[in-house]
Amino acid sequence: MPMLTQAEWMPLLPHAGAMRLLDRVERWDASSITCQASSHKHRENPLRFDGCLPAVTGLEYAAQAMGIHTGLLNPDGLTAGSIGYVGGVRELVLTVERLDTLPDDLHIDATRLLEGEDSVMYQFNLTAGEQRVMHGRASIFLRRFAP
């Protein structure tokens, strides 16, 4: 599918303001999504701790990409009346200590591996330029709430 505008994908995330970490959806299809972000370079990034952005915060970048993908695939179904939570992370590998020292934009690739009634599992990969930053798998659990 073609690149999406922010107006098309922003409603799929519950985040507001600076917690909207992604800049754009570069491409997506039925099994995967690729997003781009530059917010790791912003001093006002809300995930900074003591002036730095630890690499583990890349999980939130991946989670937002997975959330958008799940919403795009299920605009009226699985995600309607629900919110997603990262329930488990497996095989997580970090190759850098901090994100804020990376000069290149982040590229977040997420591929859906499984879908259950109230959960999805993704494999994800973050890169900055040619450098691999993080990769692993995450289980996302969807919690339904009353309208």
Task: Furnish the topology, listing elements before pairings.
Layout: H1 6-9, E1 24-28, E2 32-37, H2 58-73, E3 82-94, E4 106-115, E5 119-128, E6 131-144
Antiparallel strand pairs: 1-2, 2-4, 3-6, 4-5, 5-6
The radius of gyration is 15 Å
Number of structurally distinct domains: 1
- How many distinct beta strands? 6
CATH superfamily: Hotdog Thioesterase
Supply the helix-strand structural class. Answer: mainly beta
Q: Any idea of the CATH class?
A: Alpha Beta
Keywords, please?
mainly beta, Thiol Ester Dehydrase, Chain A, 6-stranded antiparallel beta sheet, globular
Short description:
The chain has helices at residues 6-9, 58-73, and strands at residues 24-28, 32-37, 82-94, 106-115, 119-128, 131-144. With 147 residues, the chain is mainly β. The chain has a single domain (6-144), classed as Thiol Ester Dehydrase, Chain A.
Structure, described:
This protein has helices at residues 6-9, 58-73; strands spanning 24-28, 32-37, 82-94, 106-115, 119-128, 131-144. The relative contact order is 0.20. The chain is globular, with a radius of gyration of 15 Å. By secondary structure, it is mostly beta strands. The chain starts with 5 loop residues before the first helix and ends with a strand. The protein has one domain: Hotdog Thioesterase (Thiol Ester Dehydrase, Chain A, Roll). It is built from two helices and six strands. A six-stranded antiparallel β-sheet has the order 1-2-4-5-6-3, covered by helices on one side.
